[in-house]
Design brief:
The structure is a single chain. This protein is α/β, with parallel strands linked by helices. The chain contains 18 helices and 14 strands. β12 (409-412) and β13 (418-421) form a beta hairpin. α11 crosses α15 (296-303) and α12 (216-228) packs across α15. The longest helix is centred in the C-terminal third of the chain and has 23 residues, at 314-336. The chain is globular.
Length: 427
Amino acid sequence: MANYKKRVADKLLERKLKSAGAVLIEGPKWCGKTTTAEQIAASVLYMDEPEKKEQNLRMAEIKPSVLLAGKKPRLIDEWQIAPTLWDSIRFSVDHGDGEGKFILTGSSVPADLSKTEHSGTGRYARIKMRPMSLFESGESNGEISIKQLFDEKPGNSLVSVNKLDIDELAYLVCRGGWPRAVLQKDKEVALDQALNYYESVVKSDISRADGIIRDEQRARLLMRSYARNQGGQVSNGALKADMTANDSSNLDEDTVLSYVNALKKIFVIEDLPAWNPNLRSKTVVRTSDTRYFVDPSIAAAALGIYPNDLINDLNTFGLVFENMCIRDLRIYADALGGQLYHYRDKAGLECDAVLHLNNGKYGLIEIKLGGDTLIEHGAETLKTLAGKIDTTRMHIPSFLMVLTGTDNYAFQRNDGVYVVPIGCLRD
C-alpha cells in the first residue's frame, strides 16, 4: 500500500488562510477536499447532511449568519447548494478581524456564481484540488524536484532509479489518485473506485451540475469520445461527429457544448490552455485548449479498459499516461506558484507541457511512455522549441525535460535535456 504524504492542497490551505478571510477549495467529489479542510477547521457545517439539509437551505435564505456562527476557521462543506452564502461570508469577512475565518469546499460550480463572485475580490482565496499525484500517494520516490530544476543546475548529480515497471504503471493509471483507492490494499477493489465515480457522473452528477436533465447514454458517448481524444485540440464539432456515429438521434454542437460545460462545472474534465511565448519568428501559435480529464482513471473507466488492456494497446496507454502526467504536473505547478500550459504552432511543433512560474521562469516538458526512440524525439522537439523563443524578451527555459513512464533512470543527457520517470518526480 502507498505511503500517504501531506498533500499539496494541505500546505496551500495553511498558507492561504493567512492571507485571506475565506478560502474556497474546489475540485471533483471524492478527491479529499473535506478531509483536507477538516484537518485545520475549528468547526464544521455539512450543508448536505441528509437530516439537516432542508433546514440548512431554509436558514441560508432566512438568516445565514446562524450557519456561519462557530469557531474559526469554520468549514462550510458543499457550500454551493446554497449560493447565497457567498455574499454572507464576504460580509462577515469585511466586518471581522483578521484572516482565515472560513473554508468553503465544493464539488460543483453554482450556475449563478459568476454574478456574485466579483464581490469576493480580496476576501476569497481559491485552491483547485485534484486526485492525488504519484508523489502524494507514495508511488513516486520524489528524488527529482522540479523546484530544484528551477533553482539550480543539478547536472550529473541528478540521478534516480525508477521502481515503477510497466505493470504497476498501468495499474496506477487505471486506479487514479482517489484517496480511498490509494489506501485500499485490494487492487481489484481499488480499481472499482474510478468506475463507481464514472457511473455516478453519467447517471446523475452531470444533470445535477446545473439542474438540466441530461441523457445518460449521451453522457457516456461524450466521455468516451473525450477519452479517445484526450491530449488533442479537438473541436466540439469533432466530438459531435464522433458521438453521432453511435447516436442515431439528432445531436447539435450546442448540445455537446452543454454536456462539456456540465462536466467542467463538476470538475470531471480540465482542459489545458495554450502557451503564447515571445518567438523569434512570426509563427502563428494555436490557441485551442488540449482535452484532458482531471484524472486518467476517468478516461480508463469511460473506455472500459483495465491494466492488462493498456499493456496490450500501447497507443491508448500512451494517451492515458499523458493524462496522468498532466495531473501530476498541475499539482506540482500549484505547489510552486505556477501554471501549466501546452504549446502548438501552425507548423505542427508541439510541446506537451510548459510549467510557467509567476516569476517568469518556465520549463519545457515532453511526455513519452518510454523507449529510446520516443525519448530522442521528445528531446529534439524541446530543443527546437527552445531555439524559437526570443530570449531577449523573456527568460531562457530553466530546463528541458522528457517525462517518461517505463525508463529505469532519471539523468541528464549530454545535450542538457533531463530524462525523468514520473516515478521519480515531485514538486
